[in-house]
UniProtKB/TrEMBL annotation:
Keywords: Coiled coil, Flavoprotein, Oxidoreductase
Entry-linked NCBIfam families: PRK07573.1 (NF005749), sdhA_Bsu (TIGR01811)
Ranges of residues in domain Fumarate reductase/succinate dehydrogenase flavoprotein-like C-terminal: 532-666
Protein name: Fumarate reductase/succinate dehydrogenase flavoprotein subunit
Keyword Phosphoprotein among record annotations: no
Keyword presence, Oxidoreductase: yes
Top-level taxonomic group: Bacteria
Amino acid sequence: MGILDSKVPSGPLAEKWTKHKNDINLVNPANKRNIDVIIVGTGLAGASAAATMAELGYNVKTFCYQDSPRRAHSIAAQGGINAAKNYQGDGDSPYRLFYDTIKGGDYRSREANVYRLAEESVNIIDQCVAQGVPFAREYGGLLDNRSFGGVLVSRTFYAKGQTGQQLLLGAYAAMNRQINRGKIKSYTRHEMLDVVLVDGKARGIIARDLVSGEIERHSAHAVVIASGGYGNVFYLSTNAMGSNVTAAWRVHKRGAFFANPCFTQIHPTCIPVSGDHQSKLTLMSESLRNDGRIWVPAKAEDAQAIREGKLKPTKIAEEDRDYFLERRYPAFGNLVPRDVASRAAKERCDAGFGVNKTGEAVYLDFAAAIQRYGSEKALTSGIKNPDSETITKLGEEVIAAKYGNLFQMYEKIVDQNPYKTPMMIYPAVHYTMGGVWVDYNLQTTIPGLYCAGEANFSDHGANRLGASALMQGLADGYFVLPYTIGDYLSDDIRTGPISTDHEAFEQAETEIREHLQRLLNAKGKHPVDYYHKKLGKIMWNKCGMSRNAKELKEAIEEIAALRKDFYENVKIPGGLNEMNPELEKAGRVADFLELGELFAKDALQRNESCGGHFREEYQTPEGEALRDDKNFKYVSAWEYKGEPKDAVLHKEELVFENVELKTRSYK
């Protein structure tokens, strides 16, 4: 076991990033045109990095498995993006955003990275407005803000319920400008299958053209992984079905440490599972918790009657409702952080108060907000003594203006009108705080290999606050990586083009072909999804919202056995040198089957509860997470040694000089 060097600059927290930018090496503009950079993934982190680095003069190659960068899963981020602009005048500041993020992550993130993120947040909004992102505005024309979980201020900028999509279109437009200039070569429908190391440095990738099946070699002076998170290890998650861990896992197998895999976020407001036929889950934005109140029946017999279809929620009197988040956490109410809200919902459902047929759902109710907004709208519209029907109509119009597309999406999926009857929601796997370990420069343990956005572990600790994913992705891509990668590339100005004829490329390509052929040779009886679903059930049942030592040990053994069966009995039709979606899926599931075991191993060694990692053995009498700062105040970074069971743990000790470590309280 080794101690990792995070390369955090010295000096006061608020001066570290400025000092670092002044101290690091730069690349002359005339030399940038001689340097190639590969970026894998074109979501917000990848697209913003590609556009910015191409604008600076580097030659950029981008790779995505989708048919267009616009299809990246970043478009699914609905609720907003945080920035410490203090437009509301409610006391916000970069320090308060920093503090909320550290606290929200249950004190398991690196102070310097989080403060830099808070610092750069204010620049992101200006950048996106300049690109034409249509953020919501107040009547006077100023950008509007709303609040999100875990904070007491309004700092979330939004574009209705499509913030991620609008931000990605802004980054995509910036990318397109550089594609048109010839500074970005865009490779769509390509999947990265390996990173190539030459003399210990990342110098290229092996990719598969998903249309022709051709295996290709691509070289560069540096490689950036921006391929998103690994939530689909659970099979059912809010991620796009194609989201995968392959790029991040393949670099891990080449020597990049993988950090905190057990830190996975369960989002509290998702449409509940309806049956075994489902292939993914749908997220209802956290922004809905601004106006929606979460409740279950206070009487078990009422919950039972609802489950049996004998009682409608609208018939339950106010005094017979349990607004359990408001009851348990009066200071934050429905806007507690996601991990806290998710566990509270699970507790109520486990106690028998769930409200759908499976007993795994709670209500998100907008009736009170509709009445409140309707009364206000009537007053501002000069309507005197409005009747209840008018108030309801006006209130629904206000709610529709704020959340209309989300309500429409819910109605299409569930076939219930959420304006008239409360939404049903339940926690589901959403975001992954763990990922490839990076230092302050976003460089992995492999020189020349960088990692940005959700694919790295760096900023969110054990739980991500809502609206911070978009913030991290764009901060990394627009404002961090373009500086820090230059420090590394300044040594490559005389290197010249990297040849793909090098034996390292030959060896990597051969290994990939052998791996793919091994999958095709199995000739078994079960399709790929059979194994993915089985893995997902193990992960959800034993590594999901709560974990314990006994079940984690079982999960490790079960996943290893499932992986062995997969290689012997998976059935993949078609061949290698052709379009073969089943082969694509098989490669991704093979990686999930390794990651899942490491996930359970990481959760087993962390004998504490923190954020999204809730060990049943470590909780307060009130059922809250019980951290162990004496023994587990570190990042767990795993080194690949052949099998997940053989992975070696390295620790990055976390130092807190600017915030006091204390038990999180939202009461």
